[in-house]
Amino acid sequence: MTDSPPKKGVFNATVLMNRSLGDKFCRLTLELEKKANIPFSHASAGQFIEIDISKLALPAEKLIPQHLSDSAQRDIILRRPFSFADIDCNNDTTVVEILYCVLGPATLRMKTLKIGDSVNFIGPLGNGFKIPENRKLALLVAGGMGAPPLIHLAKVLKKQCPDTELIAFVGAKALAGLAFFDIETSKLKKETDIALGEFSRLNIKTFISTDDGSAGVKGFVSESFKNWLTKNKPDDKDTIVYACGPEAMLSATAAISSQFKLPCQVSLERRMACGTGLCQSCAVKCRDKANGNTIYKLCCKDGPVFWSDEVVWE
Amino acid sequence: MGIKKNNDINLSVNLSVNLGKVSLINPLITASGTCGYVDELDDFLDINQLGAFITKSITIKPRLGNDVPRIVETDSGMLNAIGLANIGVEKFIQEKVPMMERYKTPFFVNIAGQTIDEYLAVADKLSQCRRIAGLELNISCPNVKQGGITFGTDPALVRQITTEVKKVVRDKILVVKLTPSVTDISAIARAAVECGADALSLVNTFTAMVIDIETQKPVLANRTGGLSGPAIKPIAVYLVNKVYNEVAKPAGVPIIGGGGIRTASDAIEFIIAGATAVTIGTGGFINPDCAVKIIQGIKDYLRRQNITAVAELIGSLK
């Protein structure tokens, strides 16, 4: 029994839009039921919700990609976690945006959500990015499907810390992997020279890299991040790094940040069942700062955002 | 059974049941390892509405638990191999037991160990806590290398551990939680009951495996895990009925039944099969407030059936 109003709960939402972005990516826009307004007005970038997929239908057979035709036959019972690309609380209405990638039987089912459909979810869950005061520079490092919470964070930082300069480093395997973004191409420039609408509209200088060189610079995003740091040497007291993406990329970003003595927050991903700390599935190996011992924290409850120096990178 | 007019929505129904001398306001209990230590469900339901609360497993020393992946979803179920991650009995008594004072609900603490001495040490410490109604002896965890399930598959060890723990639990209720991964669950149940178990809890998860065919390795870091969820429910209902008929009913010992309960009708099946109380585990991962909905569903069912007390339903299988 707590006296304060619940910080999280089980809620319903209505689908306002569910649109494909390229081959595998989709943007889902949800309007939350009114009683979710208060908890979501306090939600932060990097938090997440657990969506009930179990009652969603599969797409028609001919619309199921060949590589998912086997796993599509699996039943879904557990909810699936998704972070936000945006939360918009206006008057009485809360609208959240979720960017997802169709990777398996659950996200395949999500593609069949239509305008007006009802979605049941638990949230807001976990701890989002912490925004320390007096940082003149925030560096956002996004790899592949890790972009959504950083898109949200960029909007929040622009609003809450208008004097903080933001610079983004965005990486993907190839141009198609940047489909979460609104890609702006200029006919005057060569094809690899693109801008990402979500960041360019906020005047955020953005460095793009792809593994195959099909957009931006060829190479890993962590390399482009490191090159920039080497060249610009930002003051460690004025700077903060925020990263989300595959674990190897986060590990590299954490190591580079530590080399430049920059504080860094990373958003991690784990297999999880409940999302609320009950099942203990989503363990993250961490170092106990008090005594140096190895401990497990929970991605869902203690994270998903961690300080990079508390995580034991393997 | 009460004779009233059909479908009386005002029929007052009595949901209370007794686990030995502990009285529960209804048969709904949180399953060990799925609902935290004490207050983790607060945002989703009022714990005072539950019949009882069973904590996650507590061991003598803190345990980190297994490496990840610790879970994998299966058709209509999931495998877990958490490895009894917990803060240890000292910290549990210091930090968690005092939180129980905030609730009226009876709390049962699930205990585990690698040796009988470890079980005894934990049981002894917890038995001194006034607020704890009983202990659930976990001799059925499939996910630890020593102890756990190895105690629960051998009737002679079950006799020994139940007898020894019973000596230190003082006035607390002793519940013995059984594994279904045995040839004859009744033999294990009989051993526990004959050596002083005040209640039986069944079933724990079924030992199982999921293989990643791309790497040809098990998905779980622990290789095997415990299968739970709707997939196991019909087997669990059968085992509850078997133990009820062969052991629990003749001995007058109540059963806490569970395995894949998600809805009121699931819970009612277990009660008809012979369970006095029922546990919600994996179902709570999916819908954290499902226990409250199940309580309402049981009330509706009793009214529809013109049954005035849920206790009349226990073991009513024809």
Commentary on this structure:
The complex is a heterodimer of chains A (314) and B (318). With 314 residues, chain A is of the alpha/beta class. Chain A folds into three domains: 9-125, Translation factors (Elongation Factor Tu (Ef-tu), domain 3, Beta Barrel); 137-257, Nucleotide-binding domain of ferredoxin-NADP reductase (FNR) module (Rossmann fold, 3-Layer(aba) Sandwich), CATH 3.40.50.80; 268-314, Ribbon (Dihydroorotate dehydrogenase B (pyrk subunit), domain 3). Helix content of chain A is 17%, strand content 33%. Chain A has six helices and 18 strands. Chain A has helices spanning 37-41, 105-110, 147-160, 197-200, 221-232, 247-259, and strands at residues 9-21, 25-32, 48-51, 80-83, 86-90, 93-101, 118-125, 137-143, 165-172, 183-185, 194-196, 205-210, 217-218, 239-244, 264-267, 283-287, 294-298, 305-307. Chain A has a seven-stranded antiparallel sheet. Chain A has a seven-stranded mixed sheet with strand order 13-12-9-8-14-15-18, sandwiched between helices. In chain A, helix 5 (221-232) runs parallel beside helix 6. The longest helix of chain A is centred in the middle third of the chain and has 14 residues, at 147-160. Chain A is globular, with a radius of gyration of 19 Å. The mean pLDDT of chain A is 91. Chain B has 318 residues and is an alpha/beta fold. Chain B has one domain (17-65, 84-207, 228-313): TIM Barrel (Alpha-Beta Barrel), CATH 3.20.20.70. Chain B is built from nine helices and 16 strands. Chain B has helices at residues 89-96, 116-127, 149-152, 155-168, 185-194, 233-251, 264-273, 282-286, 290-304, and strands spanning 17-19, 22-24, 28-30, 52-58, 71-74, 77-80, 107-111, 132-138, 173-177, 199-202, 206-208, 211-212, 217-218, 225-228, 255-258, 277-280. Chain B has an eight-stranded parallel barrel, surrounded by six helices. In chain B, strands 5-6-14-11 form a four-stranded antiparallel sheet, with no helix packed on it. A two-stranded antiparallel ribbon of chain B has the order 1-2. The longest helix of chain B has 19 residues, at 233-251. Chain B is globular. Chain A binds chain B through residues 1-2, 6-10, 52, 54, 74-79, 122, 270-274, 276-283, 294-296, and chain B through 33-36, 40-44, 46-48, 56, 64-73, 75-78, 80, 82, 85, 102-103, 229-230, 282, 284-289.
